Amino acid sequence: MSENISSKIKIPNKRWIHIIPPILLVYIVAFMDRTNIGFAMAGGMSKELGMSSSVAGIAAGIFFVGYLFLQVPGGQIAEHGSAKKFIAWTIIVWGILAILSGFATNVAQLLVLRFLLGVAEGGVMPAVLTIVRHWFPSEERGRATAFVIMNNPIASIITGPLSGFIIVKYNWHYVFIVEGIISLVLILVWLPLISDRPETAKWISKEERDYLVERLDAEQNCLDNSESKKASLKEIIYNKTLWKLVFIFFFYQTGVYGYTLWLPTILKNLTQTGMAQVGILSIFPYIATIIGLFVFGSISDKTMKRNRYVILPIIGFAIFLYLSVRLQQSVWLSFTMLVGCGFFLQAASAVFMTIPPAVFSGEVAGGATGIINALGNLGGFIGPFLVGLLMQTFSYNVSIYSLVISLVIAVIITTTLPKENEKCENPALQVKAENTVKS
Q1: 5-29 confidence digits (pLDDT tens)
Q2: How many CB atoms lie within 10 A of CB 371?
Q3: E strands present in 269-383
Q4: Is residue 415 within 8 Å of 308, Cβ to Cβ?
Q5: Cβ-Cβ contacts under 8 Å for 240 (sequence gap 6 or more)
Q6: Which of 52, 260, 426, 429 has the greatest number of C-beta atoms within 10 Å?
Q7: 150 — phi, psi (to 5°)?
Q8: CA–CA separation, 170 vs 188, rounded Å?
Q9: HSE-CB of 220 using CA atoms within 13 angstroms
Q10: Can you spell out the DSSP letters for 219-284?
């Protein structure tokens, strides 16, 4: 029926304007508060608080230990309650914690606050991905998720110059305070703009609502008749594919956050410049990230080959990360390789996050995404800590090579994933299958 609707009239696309921008804005600010510690470390925090490289790595990564706790509840609340209200309360709490981080006077205080910030932000991503799943059919989900994940590079583009300016003008304390205040203001944008589902949105046209409800129902019915049909959240804990997805995301995030949180320090050591210049240079890898997200997200939607377009960006990331070390005798050539890393950095994330809704039914997809995001994001703790520890114990080169190895492991595991369920992901094949059953 959804095919009949879409063939007779042009379906309005207001969902792209009403849903994506507020989600994108929320996660831009969340990512700023998550990663600005990298600039604080390079801008005097490590020295003032007496942190070694390994302790600084723990401070940068302990966020992801706290990040574990609300992942599954966040997905469940979003599926069975209101993601809009849940995220609203989250924004207030994480904004306050981000501001308090600027008042830390010792390592213990900083570690506690970073841990609690992780707890506060932990439920946001599964809740956001549940909203995306409620608003965008499978053939649009790669692009929609890519736009959401563009928060990472956009936030990094903003965070670099802003944090560099604040440090030069004031000190590292104000990086947390100023950017935490920005978080609290965000609530004024989130509440009036977002809607949980098409059925409850007042701004949506009847044509768009009918199309989305019928298309998403057909997609869900197809999944309900597949292998995952009536599995509960407890039952999918024993699902091999779930654990493959967890380990892929873990090793991938180890590489991503090992690169992201140490990039300011890497750039400072590579170029021997001040923090203002480092802030400007850090923009370029993330401009490349935006392009990579859009390119791979679009191609994966057109081909529906999700596994392939998880593998290719991770391989590209690993190669350019390796070359950034091998070519570091030439500052600008090595910097070019770091920009190349940026192109592939998050491209696999957008495609990867379309896989859980295609594997698990709607009843458990939010919780499954929470499990994957929670355990996988422990790589966000391991990556920064591993880089700091190996840099202190051995050398910069060894620390970066460890990230390359982690990315290679992620690629190997991805090759073992089951093939995509094309009937459920491709609306044309879905309609064809339904017509065959009816006849």
Answers
A1: 444 447 778 899 889 999 988 888 8
A2: 23
A3: none
A4: no
A5: none
A6: 260
A7: -60, -15
A8: 28
A9: 15
A10: HHHHHHTSTTTT--HHHHTT-HHHHHHHHHHHHHHHHHHHHHHHHHHHHHHHH---HHHHHHHTHH
